[in-house]
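[scheduler] slot 2 assigned
[scheduler] job type: sequence-to-structure, two independent chains
[scheduler] chain ordering preserved from manifest
[runner] begin chain α
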Amino acid sequence: MNKVDGLHHIAICTADMKSQIEYFTDVLGMELVALYWMHGVANTWHGFLRLNDESAIAFVQNPDVEKIPVELGKTHAGNPGANVSRGVMQHLALRVKNDAELMAMRDRIRAKGIPVLGPLDHGMCKSIYFAGLENLCLELSYSSEAIDARAWIDPEVVALAGITPLELARYKKPGDYKDQGGSVKQPGVDAPGPHMTNYPPGVYRRILSTSDEMMSAGIENQPPVKVA
C-alpha cells in the first residue's frame, strides 16, 4: 500500500530569498511560515511558504548559489514545454480546488502584470501557466476527478518507453512491502544506489557510517524563536 500520500515540500535554490518570498506572498497569496538557518548546512538559509498545514514550497539560499551560471535548456527549462537537464525540475504545478479558483488566481496574477497562458483543458486536469522569478516555470491546476489509468496510459507511449505488459501491471499496482519497523541497516557506499553524489571526498562515506541516532542528535531542531 502506498504510504507516500502527498507533498511535504519541494526545495528550490534561490539567489534572492527576499524576492522569492515577495513573489509567492504577493502574487500567489501564500504565507511565509518559516525562515531559518538550514539545519546541518553551513551559511545557508531555508524559507517555507505555506500550501497547507502539511505542505510547503521551500527555498534555499547561500552566497554560492548566485555564482552558478543559468543556462536555459540545461539548468532551467524556461517554459513549461522546453527541455532541461535530466533529474532537474521542468516545471512546478500547484493545485487549486476548482475552475472558479483557477480563474480567480489568473485574475490575481495578471493584475500584477504577469502574463498567464490558459486555461488549457487537458482532460485529466485544467491548467494555467506563468513565469516565476529566476526562470521558474509555474502552473496552477485542478482535476475534477481522480485520473483514470485505463484512459490515460497510452499503449503507444508505453511501447516507446520500453515498458513490457508485466512491467506495466507492476507499475500500476506496485507490490506490497512489509516493513521491519525501521530495523533495516544503512547500505554502504558500494550499494547499488542511486547515491547522493555531490559530497566532498570521504564525507559521504563518513555520513553513511554514522548511526541514524548520532546523525539526528547532531541536528539543532528547535525553532529559532521561543513562543509563549
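[runner] end chain α
[runner] begin chain β
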Amino acid sequence: MRNESVLCYSILDPTGNITAIVESPVEIARQPAVAAAIMRRHPEVEQVGFLRSGFDGENVWAELRMAGGEFCGNASMSAAMLLQIGSGRQGGEFALRLRVSGASEPVELCLRPAADEAALAEIVMPPALDIEKAAFTFGDMHGTLPLVRMEGISHLVVEPDSVFFALLDDRPAAEEAVREFCAELGADGLGLMFLDGRGSEYCMTPLVYVPGSGTCFWENSCASGSASVGMLLASRAGERAAVSLREPGGVLRVESDPADHETRLRGRVQLTAKLELPEEEL
C-alpha cells in the first residue's frame, strides 16, 4: 500500500545533468515547492520533473512535466529509464513515445544497455521553431547572437568571436544577463550555450535559466542546448551536421538534418537512487 505521507522520487544521471523525477502524483500548483524541497535536499540536482505513466498490455503511455513547465531532453531520457525499469523490460532495447511539457507532440526515445547498469539513450528532439539573430545589450556589451527558438525553451549560442563570450569568465554577470535576455525574449526558459570548437568536435558550457521554477544553473550538460547547436550548425552548412559536444558532465552527440528538420541526440543515463520525501519537509 502506498504511503500517502511521502512522495516517491528518483535521482538519475543523464550525462552529468543530475535530474530528480517524482513518480508520486503532485498537483501542478505544488510542483515548484516540491522541486525546491528536493533541490534543498540534493544540491547537486539541477532540475526536477513529474512523471505520470501507465501500461496497457505492451503499450506504455507516459507524461513528463518539468517543474517550470519547460522542455528538457535529459529529463526525458531519465523518465524513459524509469519507465523501462517499471516495465520489467531491462537488458534489451526499449522504445517509447513520451509526452513532455513544452512540446506539442510526443518525443521518441530509445534506450539500449550500457555498462554499469546504465543505458545509452537516443531522443528525437522537437524541431526548432526558428533560427535567427537577435540583438542584445548588457552593460557596455552590444552585439547579436544566434537564437534558436524551440518549443518550451530557447537558446543563444555564444561563440568566441562574440563580445558576450567574456561572460564565461564572469559567472555572476552571465547569470544576470541570461535573466535579462530571457525577459526580453519572453521565453519559457533560456540557455546561454558557450561554444568553442570547429568541425565535428566542440566544447560547450551551458547556462540555463527557467523563470517558472526560478532556477539558474551552470549545467553539467544540456540536451536541448546541444540540439540547438546541432540545428544551428546544420542550418549554417545547409546540410546534415554530426557533432560531439564535450560538456562538463560528459559528451552528447547530435545529428541534425535541415532537409527533414530531424535532430537526434545521444547520451548516457543511469539511475543512482530511489528515495522518499516526507510531506512535512515541504
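[runner] end chain β
[qc] chain β: The radius of gyration is 18 Å.
[scheduler] slot 2 released
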